[in-house]
Amino acid sequence: MQQSTFTMHVIFTRAAVVFRSGYIAAVLVILQSCSSPGGKQHNNTDTGSIAIPVVVSRTQSLQQAGVLVLSGSAEANTTTNASFSVSGKATTVVPKEGDAIDKGVLLAALDAASYQYSLDAANAELMKATDVFNRATIMKNRESLTEADYQKATAALQQAQALQKQATKALHDTRLYAPASGIVAKRNIEPGENVAMGIPVFTIVSIQPVYIKANVPEAEIARVHKGQTVQVTIPALNRQFSGTITEIGAVADAVSRAYTVKVTVPNKEQQIRAGMIANATLQTNASSTRTMLPGTAVLHDPDGTSFLFIADSLKKRAYKRNVSIGQLAGSEVEITSGLTGSELIVTGGQQKLQDGAFIEFKAPHP
Description:
- One of its GO terms (cellular component) is efflux pump complex.
- GO terms for molecular function: efflux transmembrane transporter activity.
- The protein is built from 3 helices and 22 strands.
- The chain is α+β, with helices and mostly antiparallel strands.
- It folds into 3 domains: 52-64 and 289-361, Beta Barrel (conserved putative lor/sdh protein from methanococcus maripaludis s2 fold); 71-77 and 206-288, Elongation Factor Tu (Ef-tu), domain 3 (Beta Barrel), CATH 2.40.30; 95-197, Helix Hairpins (Orthogonal Bundle), CATH 1.10.287.470.
- Strand 16 (299-300) and strand 17 form a beta hairpin.
């Protein structure tokens, strides 16, 4: 009985060994088939990753002449609000928004009937007070009037004179005249409307000369000086104007780290209007070196970070590197930081890459 039990144990043990050997052999066959696809793709023997074809180019550093281009907008050199010093109903409104006007021209007028009545009454009171004063003077000279009564007549005359002047001014103020020459930027009144005193009904901007306001980056502010000549292009007019830098901000913006610069531009024809976009170009003594790349080489993370891929020709690898971009020049973009100027940059196939990806060059690299 013991011998038969031993015989059965040996049989089962050998069967298990056979089963395990067959399972291992099957796994080896599967692994071998996966590692040998039989295609013509190139593999990295170190990691097994497939090489991604890419096109590369070497960075180019260009020596740029001392030219600084700024973008900004035109601003009025003065802004004046015109308002009535009396209230009433508007009967006449002359200029429209955008009209060029001269100082002293009529802007609007109010119904003056009630103010004329007040002036007529003031004139009558003045005549009465004047007559009383004249008779009081005669009586005083005859010593038949007390000093107190004479002073009372004098005070009444002075009060009547003041009221007459006030009524005269109120009547005059029913007509509003332009306080300055310029362009009507806003008209807040129409005939028939009731107008309150002190409320601006016209806004007049002076644009002769006009200011061009632009922001200069902190890295460029040392190249800008008062008195520099600036060529100003107004795209809306398709014209160039010559201007001069007259103001440079003393404090940089807390967010953009840029300084505000004002360029004064003669505008005798008043063609440049406030709010027009302007491009200002100025020559500087300093020159700069710019690193330029095809714009398509630069990619962006979801958070907006700009990056590109550097190709290592020895390791056949592409490595991600964050960069900062500057101005655009046609299809190329300026790289302001992140490169030394001698790297191989992936300019084709970069959309398929990840940091450290195995690559192969489609064409001989520079």
